[in-house]
Design goal:
This protein is mostly helical and 137 residues long. It has six helices and no strands. Helix 2 runs antiparallel to helix 3. The protein is elongated and about 60 Å long. The protein starts with 14 loop residues before the first helix and ends in a 7-residue tail after the last helix. The relative contact order is 0.14.
Length: 137
């Protein structure tokens, strides 16, 4: 269910110029997604600190440090698949936290991955594919 975005660039004088541009463009997109989730969390928190109140930032930081970083922090962004994120969800459920807390953790992680989609070239948020965490009442 992952879609690739097609782009068109015209106006090159030679085919060699066009191929050089294509190689550079593809190289840039691969480099951005090669970062680890831990690096993404640092960038996300740095950005979030500027845009939200301190209490909101502290809540997001605690969630990232205690519930996201230990489970998926070492993975690269391109390694995040719906299956891996489902395992992460299962680990969060095993902690036997309140349903509201597990939903908050899920929302924070989803926001992190939406940040990666918007600014770092992640193709799609894998949490959108698998849905919410826990049981629905």
């Amino acid at each position: 269910m992952f879609y690739s975005k097609h782009t068109t660039k015209r106006g090159f004088k030679t085919k060699k110029d066009a191929l050089n541009y294509e190689h550079e463009f593809k190289g840039n997109s691969k480099r951005r997604i090669d970062m680890t989730v831990a690096t993404l969390i640092l960038n996300y928190l740095e950005d979030k600190k500027i845009h939200v109140k301190n209490s909101t930032y502290v809540s997001a930081e605690n969630t990232m440090v205690h519930h996201v970083l230990p489970f998926i922090g070492k993975l690269k962004l391109y390694e995040l698949t719906p299956a891996i994120m489902r395992k992460w969800q299962n680990e969060i459920v095993k902690l036997n936290l309140k349903p509201s807390t597990t939903r908050k953790i899920h929302c924070q992680c989803s926001t992190l991955l939406n940040f990666a989609v918007k600014f770092y070239g992640l193709k799609q948020n894998p949490l959108k594919t698998i849905g919410s965490i826990g049981k629905t009442e």
